[in-house]
Design a protein that fits this description.
Order of helices and strands: HHHHHHHHHHHHHHHHHHHHHHHHHHH
Number of helices: 27
Distance between the termini: 48 Å
Shape: globular
Helix content: 55-70%
Radius of gyration: 27 Å
Oligomer: single chain
């Protein structure tokens, strides 16, 4: 098949407009031009075989096809419909389905993920594996397809020989990305071991331009759970090295705390600043900046890092506007900027007008395309309703938090928030009845109070039950308000009398009475009708 393609297409190959055809291919994908993309990929493949360098093709699959953008997905479907055995289309589809699988699941372990998310992840991952197998069978020496086999079949007992595939890749095109993929697939996260990872570093890292065993081992030791002595060695290498492959480690929180003393603060901050180019974990990056700000007397660096991080994430959201994890990072950062009162001294408090809030809510709706099973995204929706006085929109916030609880295997955080909002409702109802007791009959008063009290009691009982089984959960800490609020509610005799079902029924039945996920379209139509069909173009800021 591929030999035929080579012969037939040689005379019609496009002339690549730039040394790096990434943007040309991206534009052709946006135009749904299958022929142009096929020819670009063929020309790049021919060049890669001649040069022994598949990195440009790896970048195309990683930066163009590994996307949740519906336009990219529709293009790939069209490509496969027109040519179902095309090596490049199958490889691209494998990487795309892999991206979508983790968009649904997130990056938490299975126990921390919604069963709905896991089911969606498994379906997409199966599709990714099937496409990878088909592409690899067409040409085992096509490095992006071989990479897909390694990445999409990780773990102990996998159906592929990762070591053999990696060895074959390194004969064709020694490269950092393939080695990194194989180390990840051999990590303890997937049933492997640090020994397996380190063997790959020792065997192949020195064969890769501008890489080495020491840098490879250091990076692996800092990314995975390894013995403390190895971590100490890695931190020493990290503190002394300026290698670009270690830049991302300067974005991690608390790693620098283990550096040998004294610390060169200027050098450390400069590395942290440059690490932003590696698209780091947003939360960890900001924690590092805050540490520098507080402990090294660099208060302005916090603001510099925060603003630079915002621009970095927003740029990535524009390029991949349906990635739920990017959008979640962006919205969480915007909320932090708006509410971080500790950092407002001497600076004007950020103000959101209605257009800004609507733009953020539209981003949030885009995140639901693949993040609909992520409870944190539903909780973010609640936060965006009204961060100045949540009681103004209490009923809708309750609906958002209930959706988050329905999807969460660890719902203590959301149950605690929900209790608080039910508590507001209860107090407001009691105050209203007190003011209007002469105009409302006794039975009606009882029903009004019951409607306010019983969901609150159910949430409190569920919170207490979950904390009983997971006492170490951070939201069950007695120092926080949630346990105290639950205890107050559960000991109120009036509430117990009014809410006999919530007080006495099997706890599973109480849960099912209040918490069942609502289909996203139905939820938006009821609670956010102005966002049920958002404009395709989302405002950037």
């Amino acid at each position: 098949m591929r030999n035929f393609i080579f012969v037939a297409a040689l005379s019609v190959l496009p002339s690549v407009a730039t040394a790096d055809p990434l943007e040309d291919i991206r534009e052709s994908v946006a135009a749904q031009d299958v022929e142009a993309v096929s020819q670009y990929m063929l020309q790049m493949h021919k060049t890669a075989e001649a040069d022994g360098n598949f990195t440009p093709l790896q970048r195309v699959n990683g930066k163009v096809f590994s996307s949740t953008d519906p336009k990219v997905i529709s293009f790939l479907k069209k490509w496969l419909e027109e040519d179902p055995e095309n090596l490049y289309a199958l490889t691209a589809w494998a990487w795309n389905r892999h991206e979508v699988a983790f968009a649904y699941r997130g990056f938490k372990n299975m126990r921390q993920s919604s069963p709905y998310a896991i089911e969606a992840y498994r379906q997409e991952n199966d599709a990714a594996r099937t496409a990878a197998q088909m592409a690899y069978a067409l040409d085992p020496k096509y490095v992006p397809a071989a990479d897909a086999m390694i990445t999409m079949h990780p773990g102990r007992g996998a159906a592929v020989d990762i070591d053999k595939i990696l060895a074959d890749i390194m004969e064709v095109s020694p490269n950092y990305q393939s080695l990194s993929n194989a180390i990840w697939a051999s990590s303890p996260n997937w049933g492997g071991s640090f020994n397996s990872m380190s063997q790959k570093c020792v065997k192949y890292a020195d064969r890769i331009p501008d890489y080495s065993q020491d840098i490879c081992l250091t990076k692996a030791a800092l990314e995975f759970n390894v013995p403390s002595e190895m971590r100490k060695t890695a931190l020493k290498v990290l503190s002394e090295s300026d290698h670009p492959r270690l830049l991302s480690k300067y974005a991690d929180s608390y790693n620098y705390i283990g550096f040998p003393k004294p610390i060169d603060v200027d050098r450390l901050i400069e590395k942290h600043r440059k690490a932003l180019s590696t698209n780091p974990n947003a939360e960890q990056y900001l924690i590092s900046a805050e540490y520098f700000s507080i402990n090294f007397g660099r208060s302005e660096y916090y603001f510099e890092a925060r603003d630079a991080l915002r621009e970095n994430i927003l740029t990535r959201v524009k390029a991949n506007p349906y990635d739920p994890h990017l959008i979640k990072d962006y919205l969480q950062l915007e909320l932090k900027i708006k509410t971080d009162m500790r950092r407002l001294a001497g600076r004007p408090k950020p103000v959101w007008d209605d257009s800004m809030l609507l733009a953020l809510q539209k981003h949030w709706v885009n995140a639901l395309e693949f993040g609909q099973f992520d409870p944190a995204i539903w909780a973010l929706g609640a936060s965006l309703l009204d961060i100045t006085d949540p009681r103004d929109d209490n009923d809708r916030i309750v609906a958002f938090l209930s959706q988050a609880i329905s999807l969460s295997p660890e719902p203590q955080q959301f149950l605690g928030q929900l209790m608080n909002h039910h508590y507001y409702t209860w107090r407001d109802a009691a105050s209203a009845l007190k003011s209007n007791s002469d105009t409302i009959e006794g039975d009606a008063q009882f029903d009004i109070m019951k409607d306010a009290q019983c969901p609150m009691y159910g949430a409190a009982r569920l919170f207490a039950t979950f904390c009983e089984f997971q006492p170490g959960n951070q939201y069950c800490n007695p120092v926080l308000m949630y346990p105290g609020t639950a205890e107050k509610i559960l000991s109120d005799g009036e509430v117990i009398t009014a809410c006999s079902f919530e007080a006495e029924a099997d706890i599973q039945d109480v849960y099912l009475k209040y918490f069942n996920p609502v289909p996203t379209e139905d939820f938006l139509a009821k609670h956010m009708p102005h966002l049920a069909h958002p404009d395709e173009e989302t405002a950037a800021d």
